[in-house]
Amino acid sequence: MIDVMILLFERIGLLLLVVFMLTQIPGFRSLLDRDIAWDTIVYHALVFGVMGVLGTHIGVIMNYETTIIVDSWILNVEEEQVLIGFGVVVVMIAGLLGGPYVGLGSGAIVGIYMVFMGGEAWLANSLINPVSGLMTGLTAKFFSDERVIAPNKALFIGIFPPVLYMGMILIFNSNQQSGVEIVDRIGIPLVITNAIALAIIMMMIRSALNETEREAALETNRALSIAEQTLPILKGESLEKNAGPLAELLYKELDVAAIAIADQQKVLSFVGEGEDHHKIGEPVKMRLSKIAMDTGELQVAYDKSELQCMYKSCPLQTAIMVPIYLSREVIGLINLYFPSSQQLRAIEIELARGLGTIISNQISGYEAERMKELLKEAEIRNLQAQINPHFLFNTFNLIHSLMRVDHEQARRILVSFSQYMRANLNIASRSLIPLGDELEHVNTYLDIVTARFPDQLKVKKDIDPNVLDALIPSATLQPLVENCIQHGLKHHKENGLVVVNINQYRGHIFIEVRDNGVGFSEDVLPSLGKVTFSSEGNGMALYNVNERLIGIFGEESQLYCRNLESQGSSVSFIIPIQYE
């Protein structure tokens, strides 16, 4: 009996390899989660059925003399021989993991195959497989709260199908005496080996699952920890200013050789091995880095040649290039470098992908908050304009003066003033409005100002009528026009000129507001729209407009401020044509 048991254990050990392969099949986890539909039932029944068929070929054969015949791969079974296959173990696994339908389906496949294999016990072999699958599947319902049945329970369950199989051999075997001798010789070893094999296989699946989930939990915890630590770093600053601290944090938390952070043009920070020749400020040269920025997809360099480093002794061998987004636009990369390809595991790639998503969401979230603050500032500015005493008193004095000399003109200015005040109340409630509405706001403002200074100010407009329905950020044109009049033409006593140009350009709207005033001071010109100043005329209007344009449409829509060669200044920008 001992020698038979050892032989069966040797043969059944091949199933452990099959089970390992089983755990690598896509969709196997759906069995453990009990997330099974009819299509997955058929799929898993076929998979387990095929594996069960393979299990029949690694069994043993017994003849009437109870001699055990061992072949490396069983192909033929004579009429007087009995095939003892191990497909039933796979069928039991199918029932325990997938339930009665998967167990019955896989058992039916193995049972039908056993009919064609033949032998003295073909009927017992064909019946035991679907019966075992159904029986273990129904038994598994009592343990539905367990993802994988405990090994001790599997050991107990695994006893019954072999016992039932021995009974079927006794019932269906034509030679009763031979059947008794076969059962006497192999019965107890088969029961023990099948039960222990089932328990070991459940233990393997449970251990593999627990190890995978434990590793995933650790990586998830690490990603969340890093995300929490990046919160104060990313808040309120640009990627260029945050690149250094962010790289230091990631290098400390991740098991990598080096960290590099770059924007669209150059390397912003580099920490780790290779700092002696990977310099901050270098242009982005790697082909994969450019692909990552162009496509927005994570890229992996599996070979040192793909890093395109000209330094022969560079310790960096592989890398992951992770795109960083702001409002669905790639603004930079985080490169994770590794000293060997063995460290570049699938879990590292997924961790990098997750970090890229988290950091991008944080940057976009802070940018959204900043845009809300800018909109609030714009609204406050509009409300302040409504109650600006100089503007109110000057307009009221104008209307009062006109009423004595030109009633019609006074009425027209009063209507324009009321429209201007109403527009100020409504315009800040929407982030994007039709260009025609914004121009009406500008026109009402200009009507009032030109009425006050009829000989000092002229306004020229060159506007493409085809873009009047296109969307533009609210309170964009009026502040630029007002800036020209209050600052550019402040000291002009006559012949002041404001020009508004709006035209289409390659799927975009080109907008320019210029004047013939004193122009911008050369020392502040490079910073206009990017910062505010402490002096009078502090550039807040240009800053607010510029930040909202960038926040909504991206860097390509930022303000372009310049002094004209002849006289005066120009502020222009382009935005993509969009409609409601």
Text of the CATH class of the largest domain: Mainly Alpha
Which structural class should the secondary elements be placed in? alpha+beta
What number of domains? 3
Sheet with the most strands: spatial strand order: 5-4-8-7-6
Query: Radius of gyration from the CA trace?
Result: 39 Å
Shape-level CATH architecture of the largest domain = Orthogonal Bundle
Overall 3D shape: elongated
Give the count of helical stretches: 17
Q: Low-confidence parts lasting 5 or more residues at pLDDT below 50?
A: none
Largest sheet report: 5 strands, antiparallel
Structure description:
The model has no long low-confidence stretch (mean pLDDT 80). Helix 1 runs parallel beside helix 9 (176-234) and helix 13 (389-405) packs antiparallel against helix 14 (407-427). The protein folds into three domains: 2-214, Arp2/3 complex 21 kDa subunit ARPC3, CATH 1.10.1760; 242-363, Beta-Lactamase (2-Layer Sandwich); 387-576, Heat Shock Protein 90, CATH 3.30.565.10. It is α+β, with helices and mostly antiparallel strands and 580 residues long. The strands form four sheets. It has a five-stranded antiparallel β-sheet with strand order 5-4-8-7-6, with helices on both faces. It has a five-stranded mixed β-sheet with strand order 10-12-13-15-14. 56% of the residues lie in helices and 15% in strands. It has helices at 2-23, 28-32, 38-57, 87-98, 100-117, 122-140, 151-157, 160-172, 176-234, 239-253, 287-295, 346-386, 389-405, 407-427, 435-452, 477-488, 540-553, and strands at residues 60-62, 68-69, 82-84, 258-263, 267-272, 299-301, 318-326, 329-338, 432-434, 457-463, 471-473, 496-505, 508-515, 560-563, 569-576.
